[in-house]
Amino acid sequence: MVDLSTVIEKRQSTRGPFEARRAIPKGHLRRILEAARWSPTAHNMQNYEVVVVDDRKLLESIGSIHGSVSERFIEENLAQLSFSEDELRKRKIGILGTMFPPSWRTPGARPATDEDAPPQTRLVGSSAALVIVLYDPSRRAPASEGDFLGIMSLGCVMQNMWLMAHSLGIAFQILSALSEREVEKEVKRLLAVPDRLKIAFSARLGYPIAPQPYLRVRREVEDFAHHNSYGNKELR
Ligand SMILES: Cc1cc2nc3c(=O)[nH]c(=O)nc-3n(C[C@H](O)[C@H](O)[C@H](O)COP(=O)(O)O)c2cc1C
């Protein structure tokens, strides 16, 4: 049995193409849903529904939806980017700018052509499955401002599903682009999702065509942990 800390450390985002014709066994999809089922949620509200999409035509239709990207996203995303592996290693946070199309790395530029469409959305069409986690904004965790606790709960669902997928050898990529207003509207229409529900997050799943290792960085424990008093770094 694989050690839990190995699963936690090795779980990664897999952003490249997946084997288009290789389906995920139903039993494995079921285990990923069982992992969602046992997620902790505030007040045990279980404030989610999950749509699993593995119909090829639907995947292709979703993959062909083109959203737009806001100037605000471009601007704020830029602050998280490093432009070389050396820079990323030094910063220990953020992601490599080369993951994004050139127009996304240029302030003021807007994606205008198909070439500029986020590659992650296009790759949905050739993924084995998509999971879409839905959320009902009218069901708030008790006294939780902005339903902060309810939304945190959805993060637990994401993590449980992701760890289970990883432990089964299934690659996973979160696709926030599917929650963008216009894209979300079209995805909801294709999947007959009731109006009152929102897409909390989506992930495409599958088996990568080739291994896709990439530079993953993290702060050291000493960089974020404090012992008894904020700022005291003597946690050894
Ligand atoms: C709430 C949330 C939204 C994310 N959205 C995206 C996304 O839209 N596209 C993507 O490729 N990765 C997305 N990610 C993955 C993160 O970029 C990734 O987890 C982070 O860079 C660390 O890399 P790792 O997953 O390989 O450890 C998201 C992760 C979270 C938790």
Q: Could you characterize the architecture of this molecule?
A:
The mean pLDDT is 92. 34% of the residues lie in helices and 12% in strands. It has helices spanning 4-10, 26-37, 56-63, 71-78, 85-91, 119-122, 148-167, 181-190, 221-224; strands at residues 49-53, 81-82, 95-96, 129-135, 171-174, 198-206. The protein has a domain at 16-67 and 117-224: NADH Oxidase (3-Layer(aba) Sandwich). The strands form 2 sheets. A 4-stranded antiparallel sheet has the order 1-4-6-5. The chain has a two-stranded parallel sheet with strand order 2-3. α2 packs antiparallel against α7 (148-167). With 236 residues, it is of the alpha+beta class. The structure holds flavin mononucleotide (FMN). Flavin mononucleotide is lined by residues 12-13, 15, 95, 120, 173-177, 216. The site of flavin mononucleotide (FMN) has 11 residues, from β5.
Produce a short descriptive summary:
This protein is an alpha+beta fold and 236 residues long. It has helices at 4-10, 26-37, 56-63, 71-78, 85-91, 119-122, 148-167, 181-190, 221-224, and strands at 49-53, 81-82, 95-96, 129-135, 171-174, 198-206.
Helix content: 25-40%
Q: Which distinct ligands sit in these coordinates? A: flavin mononucleotide
Unreliable runs: none
Q: Could you state the CATH homologous superfamily of the domain at 16-67 and 117-224?
A: NADH Oxidase
The CATH architecture assignment of the domain at 16-67 and 117-224 turns out to be 3-Layer(aba) Sandwich
